[in-house]
Design brief:
The chain is α/β, with parallel strands linked by helices. It has two domains: 19-71 and 208-224, no CATH class; 74-206, Rossmann fold, CATH 3.40.50. 46% of the residues lie in helices and 13% in strands. The chain is built from eight helices and six strands; from the N terminus they run αβαβαβαβαβααβα. It has helices spanning 19-34, 54-63, 72-83, 105-118, 148-163, 182-193, 195-200, 206-224; strands at residues 44-47, 68-71, 96-101, 129-134, 168-173, 202-205. Strand 1, helix 2 (54-63) and strand 2 form a beta-alpha-beta unit. It is globular and about 50 Å long.
Length: 226
């Protein structure tokens, strides 16, 4: 499978930190793609922003099923559920998954997004989803001027809160800017759970999960569609 990248134009937000940034980036990208007739030649599109991004729905509606579209939030949810034991009583060490993300805004946004994607009522809870824990940083901070030791400390703190909230089997990196920071989460898991159990905790990178899911979905469509 060949993967091609697309970067939003200069007038899109440099970092998506709230609902206004989500809407602005959607408008800019949709206008830009409208001027690019080649986009319809691709088999799938991955929206690499960890959010309930309007682009996922807009692109899905625009291409009407001709192109497989998903976001890294949606891909991470499905991947995490597939990595957990289907019957928690069989594996008490890995009953739940959760998200470590950036700023406070994302806690409610992602919590509501998970419920929406899974078809749950707004106030409902799931024994398999432990919640969303934020670092207090913005997406750009992970590759900006913030000292590495500060980023590590804040990410470790958020990870520990998640890991102590429930028996966690899967931790999702709730920001594309966290790519490459898996080792911080894994170290926190080993510190909390011990070498053996902590080493089994899965750390999900949404971009990798999205690419894998697109490939799987394309193969499934070819097999099951007429």
């Amino acid at each position: 499978m060949d993967v091609y990248t697309y970067t939003a134009p200069r007038d899109s937000p440099t970092s998506i930190n709230d609902g206004g940034d989500l809407e602005h980036s959607t408008a800019v990208v949709m206008a830009n793609l409208a001027d690019n007739p080649d986009v319809g030649e691709y088999d799938g599109i991955l929206v690499a922003c960890f959010s309930v991004h309007p682009l996922v729905g807009r692109l899905s509606s625009h291409f009407r099923g001709r192109i497989v579209v998903t976001g890294i939030l949606e891909a991470s949810i499905l991947t995490s559920l597939s990595l957990l034991s289907p019957y928690p009583a069989v594996d008490a060490e890995s009953q739940a998954w959760g998200i470590v993300t950036t700023g406070k805004f994302w806690e409610d946004h992602l919590l509501d997004g998970v419920r929406l994607f899974l078809g749950q009522a707004p106030s409902s809870s799931s024994s398999k989803f432990a919640g969303v824990f934020s670092t207090g940083l913005d997406a750009g901070d992970f590759h900006g001027d913030i000292p590495a030791e500060v980023i590590r400390a804040k990410l470790e703190e958020a990870a520990r809160k998640l890991l102590t909230s429930a028996p966690i089997g899967c931790v999702v990196l709730g920001c594309a800017g966290m790519a490459g920071l898996d080792d911080i989460i894994r170290a926190a898991a080993i510190q909390e759970y011990g070498e053996k159990r902590g080493g089994r905790v899965c750390v999900v990178d949404g971009v990798k999960a999205g690419v894998l899911l697109l490939g799987q979905t394309l193969r499934a469509k070819r097999m099951f569609q007429k």
